[in-house]
Amino acid sequence: MAMAYEEKSRKQAGPHNLSLAERRRLTLSGVEDVESFDEASITLYTSSGLLMIRGSGLKIEKLSIEGGELSVEGRIDSLEYEDSSPERGGFWSRVFG
Predict the structure, then answer these.
(1) What are the residue boundaries of the structural domains of the chain, listed by start?
(2) What is the number of other CB atoms lying within 10 angstroms of the CB of residue 63?
(3) What number of other Cβ atoms are within 10 A of residue 34's Cβ?
(4) 3-class DSSP state for residue 94?
(5) pLDDT 10s digits, 42-57
(6) Predicted pLDDT at 50
(7) Are 19 and 31 in contact, with CB atoms under 8 Å apart?
(8) Cα–Cα distance between 73 and 19 in angstroms, integer?
(9) pTM of the prediction?
(10) Which architecture does CATH list for 2-85?
C-alpha cells in the first residue's frame, strides 16, 4: 500500500524548476522530500526524480514541503538527477517500446 500512496503523491506534485544564481544560491520548486543533507551534499526527491546537490558550505535557507519549495546557499559544484521512474525500463525497452 505504501507504494501506491508514494506514486499517487508524486503524480500530484507541481512542476519542477530550478534557478541557480552565481553558483551561490539555488532555488527549487517541485520538491517532494529531503532525504539527507550536510554541508557537502543534499539529496532530495523532486517531481522530476531524485536530485543530488553537491558543493561546500551548503545550507538550507528555506524549506516548504507543502509548497514544494527549497532554497540553498553555499558553493554549488554539481546538480545530478537520478531517474527514479521504474516504468521507463532499460535502453532497449525504450527503443522498442
Answers:
(1) 2-85
(2) 15
(3) 14
(4) helix
(5) 999 999 999 999 999 9
(6) 96
(7) no
(8) 12
(9) 0.73
(10) Sandwich (2.60)
